[in-house]
Structures
1.
Amino acid sequence: MKRNATAIWNGSGKEGNGTMSTQSTLLNNAQYSYKTRFEDGVGTNPEELIAAAHAGCFSMKLSFVLGGAGFTPEKIETKCYITLDNGAVTTSELEVTASVPGITAEKFNECAEDAKANCPISKLLNCNITLNATLA
């Protein structure tokens, strides 16, 4: 399976701007710029998209891991914080809260650590990945 996205950039790094679009068209010419990346401009940025990808991938992987352990989650909510420092993504912090009937905190944490280590986006990232897992 292959997926794709396209980025178009116009102008210099600081004064220029661009758009990003995805194959699914969910993002369709979404604007990004220096301000959306390093300040508080309107639009998206690569780190925000990485955070969304990691949160989504981890949540889905955790659901599969829990299912494999005999548990069906009612809800998994994951927030991801990506840190960009000196031109490199240095940290991805995952915060997950889940409602999983019948599971112990110990088993949930074991499943969450498995998902953190084995979701495809975790495997892709070359940075420190932290996890704070909470049962609701």
2.
Amino acid sequence: MASVSAVKTMSEQVTFDAVEKEYKKHSLYTFVTIGCVVIYFIFSTVQFNIISSFDRWNGERGSLFMLDMYAHKDHVSMKWGKPEETTVKFEGGYRYDYFNPDHSFGGKILPPEWFSKDPKTGISIVNFQNGGSVILAREEVSLVNWPGLENDLVFKRYNDGKPYAVGYENRELELPKWIRVTDNKIEVRPTLWERVQLYRKKVEVHRYDYGWKFFFFDFKSPLRDFSIWQALGLVFSGDRIIAEKSNLNLVFTEIKDNELWQHGVVWFALLETVIMAVLGTLIASIVALPLAFLTARNVFGKAGLRFFLRRCFDFLRGIDMLVWSLIFLRAFGPGVFTGIFAIAFTDTGSLGKLMSEAIENVDQKQNEGVESTGASKVQQHRFGIIPQILPVFISTSLYVLESNTRSAIIIGAMGAGGIGLQFLGALQTGTDFENVAYMAIVVLAVVIGMDMASSSIRNRLIGVDQIKLFAGVKQ
């Protein structure tokens, strides 16, 4: 008995030693892996100078970009000594001057409700949402009823033209922190919504307000001062705004040809993007399915050809879709065909590989049952294999279509056209971030619509139970 107990003790000791050795081995691997990750992180931080990039971050500029996405800006400009020439422009654009008859339909001048001007003295008043006002006179600018100021603040100029705050000569540091004085100008910016800049020769007032102004009808439209509901009401009115054009046609063309928001261009570009995604995915699915049978071991017996086709799949999906778009950009030039073929080439490789693996994993009993009836090889594949892989094929193709809708935007920005190119153009201006937000919302709506449509198609063609089974297999 003693010998048996000793043998058992020795066996347990050997097992414990083996487990402890394996534990130490895995612990060493874990620490080595963590150490490598930390070293790589430190190396990347130093090599790419990541820390200094935070020093270049401009929070105010980023806030302005965000503000520009959901607000609009008006510029009021006055030259010192010439208040009668004060201009009010939408977004500062030279083509959108509220007081220029040539910049409005029929010479109709309607200044904004927050701006008033005395025609005799030329003195202008700009009212802000915070309750304060800026008064622009011939040789002085006043902040009146301004939040954070106990008394009104007046700005004038020295003989050399340099602006100064009255009462704060040579003690500019006592001014509020949101008033910055330099050698050439004074900048008043209590929040992002209000800004007054006093230069040696002129004064600029920037006023932000919520909303996308002129979204439906642009600055020069005859319907500029109509809301969308008023404009739709005109459709059922017999009184025409323009004699030679029906009100329905007028409302439609004014929205479509909006110069500021370019609805017609945006929606046509979006249509191009959807066409790129749909046709590219469709071509890839049609080509990949028959090639998948030729690469499946249980269907096609020629190993050499099967190996070659598999490597072709690797080649097609191994080159990124963006690279394919650049290649076809040289071949076809800018346009929809570039995006279609870039998507088709990449997804042929991906779908081909997925479909060949699905064919190899089918239940052979169903195929053998069809074979026992004397069916040909083509009939065996048609009735024995395709019904089994059809749910996987449809689901995968629809999932790829959803992804390609987003990818087509990036491809479009690379030169293939579509909404991606419009995105890039709006971003490059550095000022049209409201257009970027508009296009982002439109794209999001289309992606959500594509997702809902593909889910509905899967439910109808495949069935909910098979979709759940397929989802469980993927997980």
